[in-house]
Amino acid sequence: MGKLGIKTAVFGLAANFILFLIKLYISISSNSLAIYCDALNNLADTLSCVIALIGFIIILKVNEKKSKRIQSLSSFLIGTVLSCVGLYFAYNGLERLMYPVAVSYSKKYALLVGITVLVKIAMGIFYIFINKKQSSPVFKALILDSFLDSAITVAALMGFSLTTKVNFAVDGIFSIIIGTAVAISALKTAYKQAKFLIND
Question: How far apart are CA 145 and CA 175, in angstroms?
Answer without folding.
Answer: 17
